[in-house]
Amino acid sequence: MEQNIRICELTPQSSDWICKTQIVDICGPTESKEKKLNYLNMILQDKEEDQIKGIVYGDDIPCYQDRIKLYHTYYIAGTPVQPSSSKYEKALHAFELVFDKKNVLLELDENDVDALPLPTKLTLTPFTDIKQQVLHATTDLNKKEFDILAIVVNCFPRRYLMSMNKWLQELIVMDIFKHTFTFTIWDQTIMDNQGNKLLQQLHEYPIILARRIGGSRYNGVSLTTKFNTTILIDPPYGQKHQLRACLLGNSLQDHGEQTNTSFTLRSTSKSRTLISIPVDEEVILIANAESQEDGQTFSIEAKISFPPDQKKYYVLVCSNCGQDVRYSIIMQIQCMNCGQHRMLIPMCRFNVNLEDSSGSTTTMIMNKEGEKLLSLTAELLLRTIFHL
Ligand SMILES: [Zn+2]
């Protein structure tokens, strides 16, 4: 007899079971370097929100790729159950499911009363815990993976790292406790999709759910994508409203001219950029800011002014990847950075002087942060300058 089973009851010995599940994560298809095998991973959960990993291999992927959709409900049956192959510290379940052409997969309509409600279960690691775990890891750092729900407070265009012969894109992300990390995206597909979207939505402070990310000891502690990382922008989890509230309650304050205001600076060896969201970091003196590690964020309280010799408040950038050009007339280009034919668009970028009792420093302010400060959009600024 066929029996309804819960995910927590599944074992390789279970037979003729059927289970109502919802797909809450889809990763891939990815090519495994070791095995030369393509696979597609999913996370399935049941009514109790117990979770299990599902895998589709090789030739079976096309059969599933177009049929499985995030947050849809499926009855599944005839799926082999095997011991978990996870090499990571915390597997979702002792077992995992292998999907092939002999499976039964029955999709429920989204509006079906029997469809499972939107998920609520997230196993997130607070940024302070990630920091501790990465700093004090005694085992292989590669075995650690974390899920985070975070606000993207800044996002940079992708850049090429000659020394590693690789592209990367960096985000500054903040958790609900207002701790921040630099999060480096190495994955081409993620850069092309989520990375580009984040650049375009940056002024809205998008929220991301990133699953299976790694920690790195580069730049103090930073976050990094792994081969199986997924990033979802604006995930349907209620927890994001808390995060949004935490942002709204504290940010977007007016920057009164010549008054002391808190800023968060991101330090890099080449340039510094300013974020006006107060993060929960100790306020430090500008004189001590020089000694901060690369890529770190820290807060300062400073008087802000414009350098007297500054003539330009904007740059023109590729509308696809954000690469700036040394040219000030809007035109169509073939971008040297991403290779695409795109229009140049104006983006706010200028320097400001920051001064406190200990000293002063110059920092770069860009994009929507700059517009906020100038209270004009970059486009308006360009029109004003050119008297268009
Ligand atoms: Zn480009």
Automatic annotation (TrEMBL):
Residues 6-104 form the Replication protein A 70 kDa DNA-binding subunit B/D first OB fold domain. It holds the Pfam family DUF223. Signal peptide: none annotated. InterPro entries: NA-bd_OB-fold, RFA1B/D_OB_1st. This is Replication protein A 70 kDa DNA-binding subunit B/D first OB fold domain-containing protein. The lineage of its organism: Eukaryota, Viridiplantae, Streptophyta, Embryophyta, Tracheophyta.
